[in-house]
């Protein structure tokens, strides 16, 4: 009797597609090329993963980054080798800065010609070194038999704290190679970093006598909301970095939000006898270049052991996952602390004072901020590019009620906002999150990646772009005013007629020349489906009431 069985054969490209499906990926982003077609053909044939054709690899990578930030799933970007992979490198640096779990699949030239310096088309010397430098790690699949193991390990690394993007080169001949369909395509588990019970106990002993304790929450605490609420019930106050916004709803009276740079916040810190920093690097632009005066007793919880004493000295450090460690700590502290009942009231007061200080700098632009808050409430995705308006108010307002609601170009590079908004909108649709995407961008950043607006139209991305147009790099001009004797050079920009540009792409466009019309125009814009551009004519509105000229520095 015959025992022959027919074994299903698939290409390595299809293996990659099937593996990503098992990872819960519902959308991937990239640019098709002769050196990635087996992968994308598998996407197309299987129809399990939506592939978004970006207009450039940098934009595709930004989209994948944003997708991962708002879903908590693996972001996936597919590029060509050589120049295509190089185009993605800058966006990989942003994902690395933000700690985004992401997989970058790039093609590679045929194995027979690889690393032989033959000048083969799409060849890039030391591409692995480039990708390793731009992200967390980079691998090359050298044969079909090791493809699954490499995909698994790369994904495990991407999700292992500190999270980050991982690249995989797959030579085009390897992508097309056949292999038997594996019985198991599940990704490797990534277990949380469990804190040592003795260390949690020691930290509890440090904290239990505190009368006015604060939690500082960063991006590493995004999943820790339920545990944070236990501390708030004990009477603790909360402050966040930009990445930590929304872990506790910013409408909560105990939450100072990300108003950590304003003088009322620092004054509050000096009345507190303990601060527990969770999942935050205490970055320079959120601590006045490490000169912000924090409470005397500073404790830290972080999944990354290297966070200990980074930036600020820690009085005690515990390595551990934010959620599990805070729960374990709360178990020890609940019923064993007597927190000053006036702390929350003082947090509220500091928040109100800080908001007033920010509002006083906005002038007419306060009407836009207020109209936006009234239009969206807290149920939206808030995507921001590096732009003057974001530095003035977008990093702190409007209020967010979701730990993944804020998406921002954390590394400081302009031109990423539009692409990130597209990735966010796609993520919202594919995962049925049911929030509107709003992007705050400047004209300089918008033009850097403006081609992605065509991608937004093609993909029917549901987003509103607030385009702050002052026909210049506004922050740079202000710096030139302050430090270079108002010698303005290389800052003025020739822009298209945005109404005509949007019309050519069938994108609804509104131009706001009068601040008083902010509420009415935004209402109309938000009633539209698909991408919409609201252009704010900053030259008609006039300047802000105060000048922002780069990251705020501590004045001695």
Account of the protein in words:
- The structure is a single chain.
- This protein has 556 residues and is of the alpha/beta class.
- The chain folds into 3 domains: 9-180, 3-Layer(aba) Sandwich (Rossmann fold); 197-350, 3-Layer(aba) Sandwich (Rossmann fold); 363-541, 3-Layer(aba) Sandwich (Rossmann fold).
- It has 21 helices and 19 strands.
- The chain has helices at 12-22, 37-46, 57-71, 83-98, 127-134, 147-159, 172-175, 197-207, 225-233, 263-269, 322-333, 343-362, 365-376, 388-394, 417-430, 443-448, 452-458, 474-483, 498-504, 518-526, 538-541, and strands at residues 9-11, 27-30, 50-53, 75-79, 102-108, 137-140, 165-171, 178-180, 213-217, 237-240, 274-278, 298-302, 316-319, 380-384, 406-408, 436-442, 463-469, 509-512, 532-537.
- β18 (509-512), α20 and β19 form a beta-alpha-beta unit.
- The termini are far apart.
Task: Write a brief caption for the model.
The chain is an alpha/beta fold and 556 residues long. The chain folds into three domains: 9-180, Rossmann fold, CATH 3.40.50; 197-350, Rossmann fold; 363-541, Thiamin diphosphate (ThDP)-binding fold, Pyr/PP domains (Rossmann fold). Helix content is 38%, strand content 17%.
């Amino acid at each position: 009797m015959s025992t022959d069985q027919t074994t299903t054969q698939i290409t390595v490209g299809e293996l990659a597609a099937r593996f990503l499906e098992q990872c819960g990926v519902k959308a991937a982003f990239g640019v098709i090329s002769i050196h990635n077609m087996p992968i994308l053909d598998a996407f197309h044939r299987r129809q399990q993963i939506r592939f978004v054709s970006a207009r450039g690899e940098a934009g595709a990578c930004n989209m994948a980054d944003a997708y991962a930030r708002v879903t908590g799933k693996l972001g996936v970007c597919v590029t060509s080798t050589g120049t295509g992979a190089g185009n993605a490198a800058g966006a990989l640096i942003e994902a690395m800065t933000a700690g985004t779990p992401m997989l970058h699949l790039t093609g590679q030239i045929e194995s027979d010609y690889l690393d032989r310096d033959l000048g083969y088309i799409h060849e890039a010397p030391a591409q692995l070194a480039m990708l390793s430098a731009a992200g967390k790690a980079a691998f090359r699949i050298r044969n079909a038999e090791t493809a699954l193991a490499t995909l698994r390990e790369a994904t495990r690394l991407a999700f292992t704290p500190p999270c980050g993007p991982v690249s995989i080169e797959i030579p085009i001949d390897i992508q097309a190679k056949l292999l038997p369909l594996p019985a198991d395509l599940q990704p490797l588990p990534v277990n949380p970093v469990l804190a040592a019970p003795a260390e949690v106990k020691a930290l509890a002993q440090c904290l239990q006598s505190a009368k006015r304790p604060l939690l500082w929450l960063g991006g590493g605490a995004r999943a820790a909301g339920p545990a944070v609420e236990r501390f708030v019930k004990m009477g603790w106050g909360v402050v966040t970095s930009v990445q930590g916004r929304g872990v506790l709803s910013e409408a909560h009276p105990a939450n100072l939000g990300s108003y950590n740079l304003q003088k009322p916040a620092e004054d509050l810190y000096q009345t507190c006898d303990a601060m527990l920093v969770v999942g935050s690097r205490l970055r320079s632009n959120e601590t006045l270049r490490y000169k912000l005066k924090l409470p005397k007793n500073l404790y830290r919880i972080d999944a990354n052991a290297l966070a200990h004493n980074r930036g600020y000295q820690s009085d005690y450090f515990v390595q551990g996952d934010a959620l599990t460690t805070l729960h374990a700590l709360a178990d020890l502290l609940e019923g064993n602390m007597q927190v000053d009942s006036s702390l929350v009231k003082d947090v509220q007061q500091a928040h109100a004072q800080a908001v007033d200080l920010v509002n006083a700098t906005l002038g007419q632009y306060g009407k836009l901020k207020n109209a936006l808050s009234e239009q969206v409430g807290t149920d939206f995705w808030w995507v921001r590019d590096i732009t003057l308006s974001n530095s003035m108010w977008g990093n702190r307002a409007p209020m967010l009620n979701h730990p993944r609601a804020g998406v921002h170009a954390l590394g400081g590079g302009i031109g990423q906002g539009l692409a990130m908004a597209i990735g966010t909108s796609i993520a919202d649709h594919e995962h049925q999150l049911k929030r509107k995407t709003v992007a705050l961008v400047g004209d300089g950043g918008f033009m850097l990646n403006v081609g992605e607006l065509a991608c937004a139209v093609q993909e029917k991305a549901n987003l509103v772009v607030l385009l702050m147009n002052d026909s210049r790099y506004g922050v740079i001009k202000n710096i030139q005013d302050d430090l270079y004797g108002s010698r303005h050079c290389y800052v003025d920009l020739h822009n298209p007629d945005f109404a005509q540009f949007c019309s050519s792409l069938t994108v609804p466009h509104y131009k706001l020349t009068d601040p008083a019309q902010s509420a009415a125009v935004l209402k109309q814009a938000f009633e539209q489906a698909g991408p919409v551009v609201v252009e704010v004519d900053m030259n008609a509105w006039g300047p802000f009431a105060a000048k922002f000229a780069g990251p705020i520095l501590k004045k001695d």
